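so the lab meeting is tmrw and i was supposed to have these ready like two days ago... anyway. pasting both below. for each one the top line is the aa sequence and the line under it is the C-alpha cells. i havent really looked at them closely yet so no promises
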Amino acid sequence: MGLFNSEMTPQKAVEALGSDKEVKVEKGIEFLQEGGAEMLPFMVEKFQTIVPQAARSKKHAAVAEHLYTLLCEADLPAELCTPFVETLIQAPENIDFSFSELPAAVVINSYPLLETTLQDADVETKKKVVPFFDKIHLPPSILPVLASFLNRESGFAEEALLLIPQVDGDLSPVSDALYDMLDLYPLGDAAAESILQMRGRLLPNLEKLNQYLMDFSSQVQKRAIRVSVPLAEDNSAVYALLQKAILADESARVHILEVLEKKETLRPDQMDLVWMILVNSDSALTEERGMKFFGRIEKNVRPLIIHYAQNGTTQEIARAFKCIGFMKEEGPRVCRELLGVYTSNDALLFDRAGYAAFPVIAEMMKTNCADDALTGVLAKKMRDYCTQNELETPTEVMALLAPEELSDVIEWSFKRIFETYGIGYTPQYAEEMLSGISELVAFDIPVLNSFIKAIGFSYTYESGENQPTILHKETAAAINRLRSANTPATSNILHLISRKKDLEILQNDPSGTTISSFTLSFEEHRRLALDELERRGFPAYAPINYLKQERPRY
C-alpha cells in the first residue's frame, strides 16, 4: 500500500520529503505547513535528528533541505531558533543550505549561541558561524573578541576582518590589533584594505603608522603608505607623517608615487606631495615618474608651477621648469607667462633662480616659445651674466641667442682659453666645450683640438746657459693644421695666434721667492699665423665667422 493510502501523520509527512516522487514530496510539505505553529517543535526535532545522518544518506540530505526551507519560511519561535541554528552549524558539508533563505530574526534570537561558538569553538566551527552574521548588525561588545583573532596564530584573522565592518558604531577597540596586522605576512594586505574600508569609524594609529613609514624599503612601509595616502585626505596628522617619510627616504617617495599613480584625479594637497617628492628625490627615475603627473592634470597644477617657478629655491625653480616639459597643452602658456616675469625681474633670474637654473629655463623656453621676441632678450640677459661672472654660457642658452650674441659668447670662450695659453685644457675639454653647440659652430673637434694645442707651448733649458728655449714641434704642427683648413673660423683663430703675447717665466725657490725670470718669445708662432693670413689676403677678424652660415632651426 502507498504512503497516502493510510492516514497521514507528521512522521509520514517527514518521510515523504525524501521520496523520489514529486507528488509525495508536495503532499508531505502540504501536511507540515497545514500543521502551523504546533508542527514547528516536531520539525525542529526531526531536523536535529536527520541532519547528522545526511552525510551518509542522500535521502536524509533531501529531507534535511526541505525541512530547512520550511523552517525558514515559518515564523519560528525564539526558543526554537537556537537549536535550529546549532544544528546548521554542525551540518555536514554535503547539504546545500542556502543562507539567503535564513531570516535575520532567527540569527538575532540565536546570537548568544553564535557569540559563544565564536569564542570557544575550534577554528573550523568558528568559520561556519561567519555566514550567520551576514544577516545582522553586530553589537560593539563583540569587538574585543574579534580583535583577539587579528593575528597569524588564530587561523581566523581573515574571517574576523570580514566581521568587523558589520559591528555598529565606533571600531576603535580593534585599532591596535588591526594596525599590528600590517606587519604580518600574508595578512598585511588584507588588513590594509580593511583599514581603508573602515576609515570613517576607525581613528588612525599614528604611532604605528610613523613606525612603519620609517621602516625603509620594507613591505610594511609600502602597506603603511597605501593606507596613509587616503587617510591623509581627512587627517592632517597622517599627512604630516607622509611629509616626514618623503624627507627621510627614497623608498617612501617611490611608494607614495605608486599609490598616487592609481588615482584618476589628484587633490591639490596630493600634488603638493608629488612636488615634495620631486624636490627631495635623489633618483632620476623617481623624478621622471613624478613629473609625469604634471602632464595628467595640467590645468589643476598650473598655479603650483607658477608659484614655485617664482618663489622657490634654485632647486625648486629648476624642477618647476622641468615639469613644464610634461605639460603639452599648458606648457607654452605657462612658459610665455614666466618669460615675461623672468625678463623683467633680474633679482628672480640672477639671485633666486641663479646660474644653476639657466640651462633648464632656456631649454623650456626653446621648446615652448622660441619664436617670442622676449626669448632672445632673456637669453642675452643670461649670457651677459655669465660673461660678467666669467662663467661658461650653458649651451641651452646659446641655442636661444641671436647670431651676433652667440658669436660674442664663442669669442669670449675662445679668448678666455687663449689668455691661459691652453694651460689646464685638454682634448677632452675641447670635446665637452663643443658638445651641445656642434650645430652652431663652423668647426669640428679636430679643429678645436688644434686650436688649443696651437695656444699652448712647452720649453726646456739649454745646458750651460740656463736659458729657456721653446719646443716648437707640437705647437707648430697644430698651427700648420689650422693653416691647411682655409675657413673663416680658422682665419679668426690665426688672427688670435698672430697676437699671441710673449710669456714671462718665473723661477721660485722653495720658500716662494722669485730668484730669476725669463721671457719666452712666441715670435715663430706669430710668424706662422701671419704668413698664412697674408696668403689668404688678410681676411678680417669677425666673431660671426665662428658660426655656421645657416643657423639650425629649433
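ok protien two:
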Amino acid sequence: MSQMKSSRKSLLIAWWASGALGAACIAFAHADDPGGKPAVNVGEVNGQAGGSTTDKKHRAKISMASPVQSVHISQAVIEEDTPPGGSMVEAIAANTPGFQARRTGTASGANRYQIRLNGIQIGFDETGQAEMNGNQVLMDGIPLNNPLASYHGFSTAELPIASMFSGINVVYGPGTAKQHWFDSMGGTIDFSTKSSGEKPSVFVDVGGGSFNAYNASTGISTGSIDGWRTYIAGGYTRTGQARVSPSLTGPSQSTAFFLKTQKRFEGGHFAMGFYFNNTQENRPHLIPVYPFAGGSINGNGVAGQALSQTTSGFYYTPSSDLWTKNEQYHTYLGYIKLTSNLTRNVKFNNALWYRAGNRLKVRIDNYPMVPKLNTEYYPTSSGNFGYRGDFTITLPWNKIDVGGYYQQTTYDSSFAGYGSLVPGHELGSNSPLYYRDDHDHWSAASAFLQDKITPVSFLSITPGLNLINYHISVNNVTSVTAPSLFPGDSVGSFPTVAGDTANFTKLAPSLALNAAIAPEIHAFATWSQNFQTQIDSAYGEGASHPVIAPTEPAKINSYMAGLKYAHGPVEGQVAFVHQKLTDLAVQITQAESQNIIVEPANETINGVNFLLAYGRRLGFNARLIGSILHGSENTINASGDPVNGARVTGLPTYNINFGIGYRVYAARTLWSARILDNYQSATYLSSDISAAPTSLKLPFSAVNLVNLSLSARTTMFDRDVPGLKLMRVSLMLDNLLNREYNVQGYVSAGGNYGPGSVGTILASPGTPRAVYASLTAMF
C-alpha cells in the first residue's frame, strides 16, 4: 500500500512539474524579447555549448584519430543525463556502448553502482565473481582504486556530486601502453573536475525528488588573480529507501568538497587539487524471489506472511530489527601536477599524489533466530602514495611517449564478529566470537615506451611496451586465538593462515592502428595486454584454511577493431571485441568468515558494441547505442569439479539504449526534451553453494526501462536578479513505466536466512518510478 502511495505521489509531482514547465514555456515564448537575442548566450555560459549549429558538446563524442575505442562525455551531457543529485554513472550508461550500470538503491550519488565495461566489472556484486576490480577509475588522471580490496576497490559513491565535474573520458580495454594502469582491464574511466575561468563566477544548484531525496551544491571560480585561478566546490546529496519495510534503517547520504588552483606560465602549467568525500549508506536486505520453508516476514520459523517478492511484495525488506547494514566511506585525495615544455618538441608531465580511504561496515543479522555469528564490525583503511612522470617527444612522422609511474599502498583490515544471542558476546563487547587483523602492502612500478608513427597522413601505427612489477605482502597480525576470546570454541574459525607474499614482473605489449579511409571514415584496431594483481583474500587474508596463492597475476589479452564515422551532425562507431582473461581467482565462502581460494579461473568475452548519433545544437536529435556480448567462464567449483563454458554472472547478452530529443530556442531560453529507452536482457546467476556460475537466470532481470528528461536554460531573469547570468530548471522521470525488475542476485547457501533457505534465489530489486527536479543559478 505504501508503495502505491509513493507511486501516486511521484506521478502527481511529475504531472505538476511537467505542467509548470509547459506553462513556463508558453509564457516565455510570448514574453517581450527586445532585439531578439539574449544578453548572454545560454549555450556559452560556464563552458557549455558554443554557437555552432553542429555542437558536439550536447552529445558524447568519439575521437576519430584515436586508435583506441573511447568516448568523451561533456559537461553538457553530464547535466542532461544525470538525475538531480544523482550519480554520473547514469550519464556514462546513457552514452557509452558496452557500458552497463546496476545500482543497489535509487539513482542518488550516495548509492553505489556495480559497473561493467565490455563485460568486465568493478564495484560490489554478489558471490562467485572472478573479476571484481577490472576497471581503472581516475580523477584528473589520478588513480582512485584500492588494488587489494575485493568488492570495495572503488565505490561510485566516492564521487557523488556530478556538478563538480566538467567531463568524463572512457577508454576501452587496457588501451595503449601509455594508458595502462594497474586495474586497466575492461577499461579506464577518467573524471575531469571543473576549473576556474579567467573571470569570477558562482553557481548554486538545489534539487529533490522521490524517496525523500534532496541535494545542494555550489561552485566558486575566483577568476585570474595574479595569474592564479582557483576553483572551490562542495555539495551534499541524500536519498531515502525505495524499499518497503516496517522500519527502514535510514537514508544514504554523501558530502564532498573540492579545491583546485592552477597557473599557466611561460612554457608550462601547474595545478594542485584536494578532494574529500564522506558517504554513509544504509542498505536493505536482499529478498528471496520465491518463498522458502519456514521463512516469514517475522523471522525464520516465526509465524507470519511468507517472505518473498511474490508473497510479501516485490520491494519488501525485513525490519531493521532482523537485519541492518550500514557502511561509511571517507576519501581524501591530494595531488600536484606540473607540465613543462622543455623545448619546442619535448614536453614533460608529472604528477604526485596521496590518497587515503577509510571504510566501516556494521551489520546485524538476527533473521535466522538461532545462536550464530550474526553481527559484524568491519573497519578498513588504506593509503596510496604515487608518482607518475612522462615525456612526449614530437618528431617528424613520430610522437614518442616514454615514462612510468610508481604507487605503493598500505591496507589495514580488521574484522570482529559477534553473536547477539550469546550472553557476553554482543556487538561492541570485548569478546567477539571471531576476530582477525591483517596489515597488507602492495606496490607497482611501471615503465612504458610508445611511438606513434605516421608514415603517411592517413595512417598512424602505435606500438608500445609496458614493463610492470608488482609486489604484494599480506600479513596476518591477529594476536589472539579462538579459545582466549571464546572458551570452549572448537570450530577453528580464527585465522591460522600466515598470509603470503608475491612478486611479479611482466612485459605488456600493445599495438594500435588508425587509418583514414576517407576524411569522415576511420578504421581502427587495437591489440593490448595488461596484468593485474589479485585481491587480498587470494593471498590469505581472512582465510582459516591453507591458501595456495596465485603464481601468476591476472592477465587480459584484448582485441578490438572497428570503424568510426563523423560528418556534420551524424556520428557513428562499431567495434568488434574479443577479450580473454586468465589466471583469475575466485573467492569461496565455506562458512562464516572461512575463505579458501579456487585458482585459476578464465573468462572469454566476445561481441560487438555500436553507436549511431544525430544531432545539432537545436532541433531533433537521436542516438542508438548498445552492445551484444557473450561471456563464458571456465573455473572450478567448491567440490573441485570443472565448470566449463558457463555464462559470466551478471552480464546481459543485449544492452541497448535508444534516445530521441528535441531542442528549441525561444524567448532567451533553450528548451530541451529527451526520452531514453534502455533494454537489458536477462542475466545469469552464480551459486554460493558451489561458488561457481550456473545456468539459472535471475528472475525479472530482463527489463525495458524508459526515462524522460526536460530542461530549460534561460537568461530571462538576468535583468531582475543582480549578477545572474543564467538559470537552469530540469526535471527527470526515472523508470517512467514503473517496471519491476531485479538488478543482482545469487543462489543462497543459507547464510542469510537460515537452513531452510538453502538453494533460494536472493535478489536486489531495481528502483520503481521516481521523479527528480533541480534549479541551478549561475552568477
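from a quick look at the 2nd one: Residues 2-778 form a domain with the Maltoporin; Chain A fold (CATH 2.40.170.20). The chain has a mean pLDDT of 85. will dig more after coffe
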